[in-house]
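Quick look at the format.
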Amino acid sequence: MSKNTMKAVGFYNYLPIDHPESLMDVEIDRPVPTGRDLLVKVHAISVNPVDTKVRKPKSQVESSPRVIGWDVAGIVEEVGPDVTLFKPGDAVYYAGSITRPGGNSEFHLVDERIVGRKPTSLDFAEAAALPLTGITAWEALHDRLGISKDADQNAGKTILIIGAAGGVGSIATQLAKHAGLSVIGTASRPESVKWVKELGADAVINHFEPFVPQLQALGYSHVDYIFCLNTTEKHWKNMIDAIAPQGKICSIVETDEPVNISLLQQKSVTFVYELMFTRPMFQTEDMIEQHHLLNALADLIDQGVIRTTATEKLSPINAANLRKAHALIESGRMIGKVVLEHFS
């Protein structure tokens, strides 16, 4: 392999994950940074549900290998001429942009404004578990739901996190607790209930049963905030019943069928979506906020306030292991995050 090419994992056809060509080891051109881009040497990656959604079977065929993957930890190799925030040799972590090639490659281009310094207390694999879920949870809690970072402001307020044992839920539980909220998570299996409680949830209820009777049994008449990480329409009525008057609901999950938003009216409930790709996708004026929040998250991690949510580690980074990781995600039983490290 020449210095102008690199290893990657990609695909031409959108296939079920048990098909050997759903993800393949490929060799592609090594990119060159321009503008505000960093060229990062990838040390570790993580897999998220968005990877499986993008890769899911459809008739489309790619003429060149499509590379996905939106969680990277690595070292800056080169910088574009307009870069001011980083220099070669810096250890970084980030999620990237869904409108650009992903990070399942030896080297990866990313805009410096959506990159943070890697937490010094974590190795690359532990750090790779955090960017996409960390950005999603942070933006949802603080930007979309408007929850103050000052714990004193949140005394007596409650949040219900639906799907608290997954990737986003695992970090959101910790951030919400750090913000001073009473945190109620949902989980349905003994191992996921244990995980959520370990992360600091005050209580756990089962998302397969009506919410309100379970909340009342815990002493809560309603909750001030709901963060939905699983099947928005399936939980819609439960969320309407459980939310406080003038409360706020944030979801990260698109709906497969229409929901009745009129049910929000009587309680004057706010409903908002969070997509962590919005800022880079639309090059918003506040795009650099992702740089700032990743650095703030790194500080919380290095202070021991937030812990990594990596629970499964695979090595090396290759198509076979990525297929395993995608299958784990698609099982719907993943607790925390699956990470891969080292190109062989």
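Next, a different chain entirely:
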Amino acid sequence: MSTRKAVVIGINHYDHLPILSGCVNDAQSVASILEEHYDGTSNFLKPHLMVADGAATAISKADIKDAARELFEDQSEVALFYFAGHGDLDDESSGYLCGSECKAGDDGVLLADIMRMATKSPAINKVVILDSCHSGLAGNRDGVDDVAEIKEGMTVLTASTAKQSSFEVRGVRACSLRYFLTH
């Protein structure tokens, strides 16, 4: 088995939350990088790229959840989930990934749902990369602060801790994770 699957999501357009400017660009760059190795040989075959740069290409929380479910349901060598966009935190320390239609942030996709899908996946290696506010909550055990729960075969990379906001650098069309990785 040498299947490598990826879902790459970048959301700049939000109906009710502040518009972002670098997430679509980052997602396109990540998808391009995943397609082939430095020597030009094939790496991930056709990463599933989802970008929202306007109302016509909006990505709902249901779209995000469906894409993650499809990614993690099959056995593969690697299943990689990448999200760049708004993230939020509620009063009970639950983290969320925001779809284009989200109004308050805590009406998005629960990070715990994404992590549960990845943990239960038959994929050998599961990679979750989150460039959003409060994305550090992704590895926390439900209901327990400061306790990470990452299983063997899981890699999680986040742009912020559970309590931090991520940010865009004005004038730079890149979200925070890419900015820090390249500077």
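The longest strand covers residues 4-11.

See the schema section for token definitions.
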